[in-house]
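User: I'm curious whether this sequence folds into something compact or stays loose and floppy. Could you predict its structure so I can see for myself?
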Amino acid sequence: MSISIWKASLDDIAEVIRVERQAFDRAKARISAASSNLALLPTTHADIITEIQSLGDDPSEVVAKDELVKLTAEFVALKTSIDAAITALN
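Assistant: Here's the prediction. I'll summarize afterward.
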């Protein structure tokens, strides 16, 4: 092989690294945005959350309260996972 082939191959390697670094940086930014978006939910929807939590035992109210419990569990699990990913990526 010649120096020109080595150089071309090194340039190819550098290009792949550059592209993947950009993809990684975009992924980190998107994950951070997801964490921020989720963090806003309790404040953004505080009124409806409080209202649903104060509902009684009417069947439709119980359905809403149960759904809120399920969404809260999903929210906590997702936020925890995303924040762990951010920590791991930094």
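Summary: The chain has three helices and no strands. The mean pLDDT is 96.
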